[in-house]
Design brief:
28% of the residues lie in helices and 42% in strands. The chain is an alpha+beta fold. Strands 1, 2, 3, 4 and 5 form a five-stranded antiparallel β-sheet that branches. A hairpin with a 3-residue loop joins strand 1 and strand 2. It is elongated.
């Protein structure tokens, strides 16, 4: 297995950035699986989160995703 770390941020737009393409795909999967939890926690406020994904390099399939950090909220910033 190979691992990838990605940064997720949400403000008036959604910004996803993986170190490599697989990281961006992994963070997209994380959002698909945890969007309801994230919304309950941050609503429409800005946040940041580091996400790790594991994937199979041969098939380029994501095999797992998890948050590496708690959700960071930029308090006082809309």
């Amino acid at each position: 297995m190979t691992a990838e770390i990605s940064d997720v941020g949400w403000g008036t737009f959604l910004y996803l950035a993986g170190v490599h393409a697989m990281g961006t795909i992994g963070v997209t999967q994380y959002l698909e699986e945890h969007l309801d939890e994230l919304y309950r926690e941050v609503k429409n406020r800005r946040f940041s989160l580091l996400v790790r994904c594991t994937y199979d390099p041969a098939s380029r399939a994501v095999t797992g995703v998890d948050a590496l950090t708690p959700v960071y909220r930029s308090e006082g910033v809309a």
